[in-house]
Amino acid sequence: MDANTVIAVAATVVALASLAVAAYEARASRRHNRQSVRPVLQLRSAFHVGGTAGLRLTNVGLGPAVITGSHLLLDGEPVTAGGIDEAGINSVRDGLEVRPKAVTFADGSVLATDLDVWVLSVEPYDPDAHEEFYDLLRRRLTVEIRYESFYGEKFVTPT
């Protein structure tokens, strides 16, 4: 083996190692970019006597969420009118003695990174006057929201 062959082999090894490192870095960069714009939607119920009470939707992630679908269960049965769109929310709140305020979202809606809204709410909350509303949110209603990031990764809110 002469010097030219050794140099050619060494150069090939260095080039292959460089290619492997570049591919690894590109994959890590893509993974980081996806995580840096990942939405995380949370549904929480809160009952503050004298203040606002209800079901709150918050995007605590770092990117916007695109709603791809939603599902409501009332007493374990699917609400056939819809999800968290106007028809679905209205079918849930229409039967209540005290009609709560509502914010609705259609499929395809884009929820901003700093979103923080009351999906269903009453104000001012009085435990005696809003007992039926409390029971609805704590025991009877289940809400599931399916959404995705701009990269197309799919997520579901915990129920």
UniProtKB/TrEMBL annotation:
<protein>
    <submittedName>
        <fullName>Uncharacterized protein</fullName>
    </submittedName>
</protein>
